[in-house]
Design goal:
By secondary structure, the protein is mainly beta. It contains 4 helices and 23 strands. The strands form 6 sheets. Strands 1, 2, 3, 4 and 5 form a 5-stranded mixed β-sheet that branches. Strands 14, 15, 16, 19 and 20 form a 5-stranded antiparallel β-sheet that branches. The longest helix is centred in the N-terminal third of the chain and has 9 residues.
């Protein structure tokens, strides 16, 4: 092709030929609805949220909202340009860092979360919290206590949890009332976020998980005070104050990570395991009909040598309590 349209320029303009491709698929529990992200063209970096309505066993679209493309059943649910009033998206530092760790190259809606029925989706734009009703494509902004990170609706579709200022908040969608569920004044402590090692090395990009009944959450608490500090300067602008960050270099201390079950009324139960031998919280799952399950790892383990990995299962108490309940257990198995 012509020099201005050669491969290097095409590769850069299309972000490695990824723009315009559908991504981030979520299928409803009944198989009748699919949500996904996509920009409008191969050189458009701004992702929108879309929904495809398909009744079970049929290729025909359903739902009352307008269809975006004739004959496809696709509906445009959320357009960042319209939601932000055509203004630029001002990313908060926490979201910018999250996108860097995720190697995210697109803009707009790059992540979202839904309930299992795909009745509601939550996402952040420019640190603001938005909620979309997927059957009718109605989008509204919810008041938040600060720049929003990682919003996720509960499985019942009535509440949305999010992180701001290192604390986990919950907002009621019908009343718009937001409250702190877990947090501390210590700037070195975060609740509900993946620490550096988890996000960069273990592909764990979240720090909290809703229980199937939506009445409690498993929440990771990370204390980065033991982690060494690095000071990064800008050689092109030496007059700018260096950026200080915590970086767990090889052979140095990592963040101290714990896991708690936090009730909506503030009750809290700590999940205990041998964190000295198994300091890394790799993954957490809370499936419907199953126990809260976590995967922890020793520093000697690797995906190629999983013998050091153990899985733990904890059964949630039947009553709300702020102390470790009798009968709760964490079983470690090689």
């Amino acid at each position: 092709m012509a020099g201005s349209q050669g491969f290097p320029r095409q590769h850069a303009r299309t972000r490695g030929f990824t723009l315009g491709e559908p991504r981030g698929f979520t299928v409803s529990a009944d198989g009748g609805r699919v949500a996904f992200l996509r920009s409008l063209a191969g050189d458009d970096p701004v992702n929108r949220l879309w929904v495809l309505d398909l009744p079970e066993g049929s290729g025909e679209p359903q739902g009352g909202a307008p269809v975006d493309r004739a004959g496809t059943g696709e509906r445009l649910v959320a357009d960042p340009g319209a939601l932000l009033g055509g203004g630029p998206e001002d990313l908060p530092p926490g979201e910018r860092a999250r996108r860097e760790r995720a190697r995210e190259r697109a803009a707009g809606i790059v992540a979202y979360a839904t309930d299992p029925q795909l009745s509601v989706a939550a996402f952040a734009l420019g640190g603001r919290l938005f909620c979309a009703g997927l059957p009718g494509a109605r989008v509204r902004e919810l008041a938040a206590a600060g720049p929003v990170l990682d919003p996720r609706p509960d499985p019942t579709g009535r509440r949305v949890a999010y992180v701001t200022g290192g604390a986990l908040h919950v907002v009621e969608m019908d009343r718009g009332a937001s409250r702190v569920l877990a947090g501390e004044d210590d700037p070195e402590v975060t609740w509900g976020l993946a620490e550096f090692i988890a996000a960069e090395e273990m592909d764990r990009d979240r720090g909290y998980w809703w229980a199937p009944d939506g009445q409690r959450l498993a929440v990771a608490r990370a204390d980065t005070s033991p982690v060494a500090r690095l000071h990064l300067t800008d050689p092109a602008n030496p007059q700018v104050t260096p950026v200080t960050l915590r970086y767990p270099a090889a052979g140095t201390d990592n963040a101290e990570v714990r896991l708690f079950v936090v009730e909506l009324n503030g009750g809290r139960v700590g999940i205990e395991w041998d964190r000295q031998a198994l300091p890394y919280l790799v993954e957490v799952a809370w499936p419907r009909g199953g126990p809260l399950t976590l995967l922890v790892q020793s520093w000697r383990s690797s995906p190629a040598s999983p013998r050091g990995w153990t899985a733990g299962a904890w059964s949630a108490p039947s009553t709300t309590t702020a102390a470790t309940p009798a009968g709760s257990r964490l079983a470690a198995r090689p």
